[in-house]
Design goal:
Elements: H1 2-20, H2 36-60, E1 64-65, E2 68-69, H3 71-74, H4 76-85, H5 102-124, H6 132-153, H7 158-166
Antiparallel strand pairs: 1-2
Helix pairs in contact: 1-5, 2-4, 2-5, 5-6
């Protein structure tokens, strides 16, 4: 599965590079490395946000339009968390300096890609307890979420994201 996860992320980055016609920008690297325990803790926080926001959407269907939930609205906490992990500047009166953590965002990308692979497998052979419509919805929102996190990771401007989204395969 690890190979499929890496291939999925690499393929998304290649698609973005082709669409932009230039290499993707890399985020500022970690200035002070995290311990493995701290890095794992941040990843687990992101996973908790994912599962909680996904479950809330499954229960309420608040963010659904035309039957499909919008990832931006389904996962606001997770996307804000990712933005925070990539901050390179803070206000002058901030109590702490910006400490970008792109390695943690890479871990989040791997988690999301792994989730997509898992959902693909479950969609191709649903179990007795699986609801195919719910699996499809989770797949679609997670697939889109992966792209949204990649856009933030590589620092793409909103107008570029808008252009990419209009050409995004559906």
């Amino acid at each position: 599965m690890r190979d499929r996860v890496a291939t999925l992320i690499r393929g998304r980055r290649e698609r973005l590079t082709r669409a932009l016609g230039r290499p993707l920008a890399e985020p500022v690297s970690d200035r002070s490395p995290l311990t493995e325990e701290a890095r794992q803790h941040l990843l687990e926080e992101a996973q908790d946000l994912y599962w909680n926001e996904l479950e809330w959407e499954n229960l309420t269907e608040e963010e659904a339009t035309d039957g499909a939930p919008l990832s931006e609205l389904t996962f606001p906490g997770l996307l804000a968390f990712v933005r925070g992990l990539l901050l390179t500047e803070v206000n002058p009166d901030a109590l702490a300096p910006a400490e970008p953590r792109p390695a943690v965002v890479e871990d989040i990308l791997a988690f999301l890609a792994g989730r997509i692979v898992e959902l693909e497998e479950r969609l191709s052979a649903p179990g007795d307890d699986d609801d195919p419509a719910q699996l499809r919805s989770e797949f679609d929102t997670t697939d889109r979420l992966l792209d949204l996190v990649l856009y933030r990771y590589h620092g793409l401007a909103p107008e570029i994201v808008e252009r990419l989204e209009t050409s995004r395969p559906h």
